[in-house]
Model the fold of this input.
Amino acid sequence: MLLVHCPVCGAEGDETDFHGGGQAHVRRPATHDPVNVSDEAQRDYLFIRHNAKGLHFERWRCDRGCGKWFHAARDTVTMEFKAYYGITELPPRELMEQATGEWAGYFKDKLK
Amino acid sequence: MPDLYVESPLAHRNSPERLSIYLREIKDRGMVDLRGIASDKKFMAAAKKVLGLDLPKTPHSSVSWGDVKALWLSIDQWLILCPRAKAAELAAALTAELGVIHSLAVDVSDMRAVLRLEGEGVREVLLKGSSLDLLSGDYKPGAVRRMHYAEIAALLHVVEDTVFDLYVFRSYADYAWEFLLATAREASKIKLFGKQAGPF
Done:
């Protein structure tokens, strides 16, 4: 059982009080360039997700509390939550630096 | 305008017996759902003009003024409590005052049933259906919390130290009532701190 903390209202509860929304920071190609969306880009957007071992970034919703979405950084090995941050925000800088694999590639240009 | 016709979702239920707490339904509670942007000064001022109170910005808190009470539900949502007969009028007054401000005020008096729980062991009874630490200092009078109660969505309002209002969606009222009848039985009373009645 995960113990989750909502950064919006401060509620703390187990995961049944919350709703996991899958991988964070998924970029919808049509939002940025509606004319030139390739089949591959659309497939990746819809179906292809990171399967990180270790640090992972997710969306969560305070389902039985304030009802707001937020982001969380979680270690998929230890199940420990490393940070909670707003739904429109990027993770804390040190976590972006610690990210490995596909996440490192994603955060590379955001760390500049 | 025809007379207000209100049918309770618990009309078929008798008043409960042999409970360790006092349980009843509050039927005359008017509720208005108010949404708007808390950082918008115009919105807050318009709400204050109609309601006579500053909408609470602190999570899980409430503010009252006269017979109107505002419960914090989310950073952009409040539940306004008032007498039932006043709800439609209050929603209309809010809508008129808010005008073009990005906001919403709807009379939702029929959306939820209100269960009033009173008595010494009320926290222990509620604990049986919830994972909240109701014995901690967070649940002082005035506290408001949307919660997972007995596997359903509920809203808890601490009215006084031993008086709680439990708001559940109307269609769940019967289930919540049944759950409370079972967990609040005199025979199933628990005392978390202090000498237990055991051995069990």
